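Postdoc handover notes: sequence design on the structure in folder B. Input tokens:
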């Protein structure tokens, strides 16, 4: 996957501590104002690596199998869709060439590409919410996106999938052939995982 966009924020009041956190699809790295450009480059790379490794460890509970995936879908429906989306089956399927997942509203079945089995849990959750949304509105219309955007990490997950798609040259558009986003205003995603560390004493004051 392509690395996350990065924003660096320097502070003269920050003497030693380096920290980072996820804000939307960006990783924001906070560093002391005295750091050189070379030190900034090294610390940014290290902090981005830590954030993304932390996220990668948070795998979906649905990765264990189809039954677990169905349970997770039902949990997400209850939490974000008022329990109104009731799939009959949700299962992993061999890698699909042009989409991450698909839904058949008529029989209420959802299929998720094996390519996402090791994706971060919040990405798989978005894909599930997206497909569950089709049980409430079959088209990618305003009503559909109003349901999907109840999941607070929608924009961030879209960015992740776009990066994964670009890095692997997969040619996938959206989740299931849909436009990646709607015209609706996304909800705020808030901040995600954080990482904090302190440079060695020898690096200070340089």
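Designed sequence:
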């Amino acid at each position: 996957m392509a690395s996350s966009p990065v924003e660096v924020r320097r502070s003269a009041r920050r003497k030693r501590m380096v920290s980072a956190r996820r804000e939307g699809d960006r990783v924001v790295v906070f560093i002391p104002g005295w750091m050189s450009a070379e030190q900034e480059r090294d610390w940014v790379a290290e902090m981005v690596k830590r954030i993304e490794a932390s996220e990668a460890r948070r795998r979906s509970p649905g990765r264990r199998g189809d039954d677990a995936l169905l349970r997770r879908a039902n949990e997400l429906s209850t939490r974000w869709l008022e329990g109104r989306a009731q799939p009959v089956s949700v299962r992993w399927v061999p890698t699909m060439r042009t989409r991450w997942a698909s839904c058949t509203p008529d029989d209420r079945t959802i299929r998720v590409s094996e390519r996402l089995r090791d994706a971060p849990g919040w990405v798989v959750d978005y894909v599930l919410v997206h497909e569950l949304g089709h049980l409430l509105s079959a088209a990618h219309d305003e009503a559909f996106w109003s349901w999907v955007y109840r999941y607070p990490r929608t924009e961030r997950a879209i960015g992740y999938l776009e990066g994964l798609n670009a890095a692997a040259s997969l040619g996938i558009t959206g989740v299931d052939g849909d436009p990646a986003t709607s015209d609706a205003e996304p909800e705020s995603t808030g901040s995600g995982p954080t990482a904090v560390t302190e440079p060695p004493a020898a690096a200070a004051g340089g």
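Context for whoever picks this up: The helical segments are 37-57, 66-80, 121-133, 142-148, 154-168. Don't rerun without checking with the PI first.
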